[in-house]
Amino acid sequence: MTYVQQVRNLTRNDTMEEQKDNKEGAVVGIVQSSYTGPIPPPEVIKGYESIIPGSAERLLKMAEMEQQHRFEIDNQLTKGYLSLNVRGQLLGFCIVIVLIIAIVYLTIYGHEYVAGGLTIVAVSLAVIFVLRKVPKNIALKREENS
Predict the structure, then answer these.
(1) Strand runs labelled E in the chain
(2) CB-based contacts of 63, cutoff 8 Å, min separation 6
(3) Distance between CA atoms of 142 and 137, rounded to whole angstroms?
(4) 3-state class of 103 per DSSP?
(5) What is the dihedral of CA 140, 125, 86, 68, to 10 degrees?
(6) How does pLDDT run along the chain (146 residues), one tens digit per residue?
(7) Which of 19, 20, 61, 54 is nearest to 38 (CA)?
(8) Is the dihedral of CA 74, 76, 82, 87 positive or negative?
(9) With DSSP H G I counted as helix, E B as strand and the rest as coil, what are the percentages for the chain, rounded to 5?
């Protein structure tokens, strides 16, 4: 008796005593299937359709709506990220302009050392906002001090 025949015999509602009399032994197997994605395999859709007419179209419509929702969320996230970047760039530009005005004012009224310090700060901020990141040597020093 082959493996397939044994499994077929087990699925024919054999009684426990009939299975005990079987000297060859019994092999029981479990088959599991799964799928990923918004749409189930065609066999599953056919099963739903046979039980509830019209369910196949409802499943496809649900998958289409889910996909559209994901696209909308992705678009909103992208727009928000771009808006945040633009606001950060504008804020950085305004800060640098204010620092340049302060540097000119301090230089005119004889505070060259303070103006020199603010110049270093202004250049550093301009580099950070233009490159949109902290230069590597400054980041490494911060990590070493922590």
Answers:
(1) none
(2) 38, 39
(3) 9
(4) helix
(5) 10
(6) 554 455 455 555 445 555 555 555 556 778 777 778 778 888 888 888 899 899 889 988 998 999 999 999 999 999 998 888 888 888 888 888 898 899 999 999 988 899 998 899 888 887 877 776 665 665 566 666 66
(7) 61
(8) negative
(9) 75, 0, 25
Amino acid residing at 4? V
**What radius of gyration do the chain's Cα atoms show?**
36
**CA 126/CA 114 separation, integer angstroms:** 18
**What is the residue whose two structure tokens read 């580099």?**
127
